[in-house]
Amino acid sequence: MYSPQAANHNLPVEPNRFIGRARDVEELCALFADERVVTLCGVGGIGKTRLALRVAERLVHRFPGGVRLVELARLTRADLVAKELAGVLGVREEGARPLADGLIENLRGARTLLVLDNCEHLVEACAELVARLVASCPDLRVLVTSREPLRIPQELIWRVPPLDLPDARRPDAESVLLFMERATAAGIRISLDVLPDVADLCVALDGLPLALELAAARTKVLSPRQIIDRIGDRFTLLTSGDRTAPARHRTLLATVQWSHDLLEEKEKALLHRLSVFPGDFDLAFAEQVCHDRHLLQHEVLDLLSGLVDKSLVIGEGERFRLLATIRQFAAERLAEAGESDRFAERHLREVLAVQARGLRVTFEEQRMERPDRLEAFQRASALVDDSRAALDWAIRAGDARAGIELCLIAAAPLAVAGDAAETADWLGLLLAMDVSAVDPSDLLMAKSFIAYGLEARDELRQARELAVEGVEGLRAGAYHFRLGVVYAIAVRVLLRLGEREASRRWLEELIERARAHADRFTLAAALLYRSTLALADSRLREAQRHVEEALRAAREHGHPWIIAQVSLQLGVLAEARGDLEAALGHLAAAVPLNEELDNRAELARVLSRSGRVAGQLGDFAAARRHLARSLALAKGTGQRLTIAHCLSALSVLAEKEGDLEGAVLTAAAVQRLRESVGQPASRARTDELMARARAELGDGRAAAMWAKGGELSPEEAAGRVLEQEHVSAVDPPPVRRRTVLTAREQEIASLLMRGLSNRAIGEELVISPATVARHIANIMDKLGFTSRAQIAVWAAEHDLGSA
Amino acid sequence: MFGPGFLSTVSGMDRVVAVDPGTGLPLTEAQLDAWTVAAVLRLRKRGVREGDAVLICLPTGTDLLVAVNAVIALGAVAMPLAYPPSPEAVHGVAARVMISDRPELAEESRVRVVVSPHELAG
C-alpha cells in the first residue's frame, strides 16, 4: 500500500542467520564506490542471492534514492523485464513512450541501487536494459546475480566461491559454521565427537551453502557420516549421467536428488507440483492447484510444513516459495512423471477462478462494502505473476480460448491499475493463434480490449477500427458488465478522435442499458463521459447535473477508483465555473482514494491540478506543497506530461509573485520537456510572458534566463521556484583527503620531481623498486592523482625539492 | 612548466628494461614505473590487500613483468602459474584475485575477480 514515507528499500527480512563471507561483503560494498554494475556469478545454490541481499542491506544508507530488489526468476518473457522493474519502482506506462524512458525518469538524479536477482534465463534482455539505464542515469548502481554474466562493458564480474572448507588449521571454517548453525536452529544437537564427520561432510559437499542446508535439515534422522555415504552413492550415479557439468553443479544436484529421494511419496508429489507456481503462493492456492485423488486437499498443509522443515520450500509468513534451483529440479521431475501439462492446466483453471471472483466482487456485484471490494481487487492484482504464467501455458498449449478468457477477466483490474497495454499485448499473441474454437463474441471483445491498450499508447486510428467493430458486433447481445466496458472503450476512443456525434450515440445507449441492469460502476463511468462532453460544449450546468448523478451511482457501488474519478470531475467543473474553494475540496477528496489504490500516477495528476487551483486562490504555500508532492510522484511514476503541468503551474505562480526570472526559467523547462515528449505547448502564454520579461528584465537577461531554463533538469527548474533545498543530482565532490604525506612519501615525491625512476629512487633510499611503487601508489591515493607527473608538479608547487 | 615527456628525458628513464617476446615492443623504465603504479592502484580497488595471494597466469612478456611488480609492491604474494596453464593448477588455491587473460580458469577455483592485463594497465 501507498505510504508517503515509503521505506527506502524493499529488501526482505533475512530468513535465518547469515554465516561467514565477512570480507566478501566488505569488499563488495567498497566496490560500489567506483563500479556501476557488479555481477555475482556462480552455479545455482552457491549463495549468490543471500550475498547480494546482505551487501544491499549494508549499502542502504549510502543510497538516498533507495535500494530496490527486482526478482526475475518468476519471469518467462524477455519483454517483461522492464515491466517488472517498472512495477517495483512504481513507474507507469505513459502513452506511446517506451517504458524505459519512464524508468530513466524515475532513476535519474538520485543515488539508487538496483538489485536484479536471478538474471540467467533472461540475460540478454537484462544486459540491454542495464546498459541503457546505466548510460542514462549517472547515479545508478546495479548489483546483479546470475549464473551467466551480462557481458556489458560497465560490468565487473565477481565470482561467488563456495564457503571456506575446514582443514587441520581451521576446523571452524565457514562451511562448518553454517552446517552447525542450521542444524542447531532445527533443534538438532551435534555431539563434539562427530565434528570430524561434519568437516568431512562439508568437504564432500564442496562448501556449497544450499547443499549444506539440505544436509543439515536431515541430521535429525541421519548422522553426518551416513549422509556422506548416501550422497556419495548419488554422486556416482549422477556423474555417470553428465560428466560435462561443473563439479560444483554436480555436487549440488546430487544433494538435491538425495534430499528429494528421502521424501515420502506424497511429499515428493507435492514438491513436484509446486513447481507450477512462478513466484510465491499461499496455502489456499497450493491446496486448490496441487490436490488430486491421491493427494487430498486437507493433506497439503502437513506436507508443505514437512517440505519447509527439510529446507526444500521456504516459508515467509503466510507465503511460500521455492528456490530457483529446487524449482527447476522439481519441474524436471514433474515432467518425467508426465504431469507437467496436467498441473499447468490446473494452475490456469485456478487462476481463472480467482480472477473471475475478483472481477465479480470488485466490479459486477452491486452494493458492496468498500473494504470488501478493495480486498478482492488486491487479491486479483497480486496474481499478476500467476496470470502471466497461466497465459504462457495457454499459448504453449495452443489453447487460445482459455487464454482469451483469462485476459478478458483479468483486464479489468489491470486497466484500473493502469496497465491496459499489457493485456493488449497478450491478446495480440492469442489472436494470432488458431481461434476457431473461440466463441465469436469473445473474439470481438478481445479486439475491443486490444483497442483499449492501443488507446493507452495513443495509437488512436488502429484503436478506432477495433473498438467500433467490437461494439457493433456485440451490442445485439444481452447486457453484462464486460459489454459495458466494450461500449466505454468505443466512447473513449471516438471522443479522443473528436468524433463527438458517434461517441455520443454509443454513450446514450450505454447509459440506458447500464441503468436498466443496475450496473452502477459502468453507469457512473458513462455519466462522467456525458459530463465531460457537456463541459466541452461549455454547458456547465448540464455537466454538473450529470456528475452529480454519477456521484450517486459511484457511491452506491463503492469502488474507490470510480469515486475518485467522480471527485476529480467535480473539481474540474468547480474550477471551470470559478468556484476555486469548492474545486480544492473535491480534489482533496480524491487524494486519499488514490492513495488507498496506490495509484500514484493518478494521484500526481490530481495534486498538480490542486497546486494550480491553490495558486489561483493566492495560497502560494499550499500550491508549493501540492506541486512539490506531485512532482515527486510524477517523477517516480515516469509521467513527464504531469511534470510539465506542474512546471507550468510553477511558472504562473512565479509570475504572480513577481519572480519573472523564475517564471521564464520554468516556462523554458516546460517547453523543452513537452518537445521531448512530442507534445509541444501552445505558445500564447509563453509569448506573453517573454514580452513582459523583455520589457522588465531587458532583452539580454530574458534571453539568458530562457536559455538557462532549457538546460536545467525539470527538478532543478522546479527547485528554483519551490525554493526547496535542491537535492544535487551528483555526489558532492569528494572531500579532498588532507594531504598529509609521511616523511618517506615526501622524500619520494621530491625524488620524483627530479625525474628519477623507481629503481633509481630505490637505490637512493636503499629500498626495493617495488616498495617505491607502493609508496607512489599511496601518494596517488592520498592526493587523488593518476600519474607520476602530477606528483612531480605537486611536489614542485609545494617546494618539496629542498626537502 | 613540465612537458608531457619530461620524465623520460632525464635520469635514463627511457632506458629499455625489457622487450616483449610476443609483440617485440620495448618497455622503458618510465613505462614500467608508470604501469606498475597504475596496476597497484587497480589491484587495490579490486580488493587485494597486503599478505593476500594473487594468481598470475600470463604469457612471458611485459604484462607479466608489470603484474608481478605490482603484486610485490602491494605487499601481496605473487603466485605465477606456468603458461598455458592447466585448469587443475588453480584448484584449492586460496587466491581471491587472478591476473590473467583466461577468465575461464577461475570457474572451479576460489578466485572472486579476474583482472585482465588490459584492465591492469588502464
Automatic annotation (TrEMBL), chain A:
UniProt keyword terms in alphabetical order: DNA-binding
PROSITE patterns xref list: HTH_LUXR_1, HTH_LUXR_2
Highest taxon of the lineage: Bacteria
Domain HTH luxR-type: 734-799
Key word Membrane present: no
GO annotation (BP), single: regulation of DNA-templated transcription
PANTHER family in UniProt: HTH-TYPE TRANSCRIPTIONAL REGULATOR RV0890C-RELATED, REGULATOR-RELATED
Protein's recorded name: Putative ATPase/DNA-binding CsgD family transcriptional regulator
